[in-house]
Amino acid sequence: TEVTEKLEEVVMIWTKQIRQVLVESEQIRREADDVGPSAELEHWKSRMSSFNSLLDEIKSPRVKKIISILQAARSKTLKQWKELDGRITIAANEAKDNVRYLYTLDKFFGPLANASPVMMEHIPSLMNTVCMIYCTSPYYNTSEHMTSLFLKITNQMINTCKTYLCEG
């Protein structure tokens, strides 16, 4: 019983820490007004790295051993733990999926940033790729994500035009 109580305390600390990570990941991002679309990819790469590290820790032999001991003891703390484990898995899958889809846009980011204002040749392919992401991604096809992406693409186009005008 004493061992079970100590392990439950440990799991409760982990639960609190994981909840904090989830809360922070769900907060609205603060970004500069002129940030380009590559920032979107970097955000999701960073998020994927964080959640994958967290998943690796959760799946470690040490954690698995503690969880199995608490399962044998029929601990009540496991209900919360399983719910958080599921949420972390979903967040990791979302980040991984979003990175995969945003990488399909990566080839447009360079030309978009370095082109002259006559960047029209890149726009149809870029929009087709964005449309493909919207139609096929199980996570990225929300109004919030698409608005953020379009805002960043537009910012990049404006920055490119400003640079061109200042050099000319």
Task: Give a description of the structure.
- It is a single chain.
- This protein has 168 residues and is an all-alpha fold.
- The chain has one domain (2-167).
- It is built from six helices and no strands.
- Helix 1 packs across helix 3, helix 1 (2-26) packs parallel to helix 4 (78-114) and helix 2 (38-58) runs antiparallel to helix 4 (78-114).
- One of its GO terms (cellular component) is axonemal dynein complex.
- This is DYH5 protein.
Summarize the structure.
The protein has 168 residues and is mainly alpha-helical. The protein has helices spanning 2-26, 38-58, 61-72, 78-114, 123-136, 143-167. The protein has one domain.
List keywords for this structure.
mainly alpha, 0% strand, elongated
Uncertain parts? none
The proportion of strand residues reads: under 5%
User: Could you say which overall geometry the principal axes of the C-alpha atoms support?
Assistant: elongated
Overall tally of domains: 1
**Average pLDDT over all residues:** 89
Fold topology:
Layout: H1 2-26, H2 38-58, H3 61-72, H4 78-114, H5 123-136, H6 143-167
Helix pairs in contact: 1-3, 1-4, 2-4, 4-5, 4-6
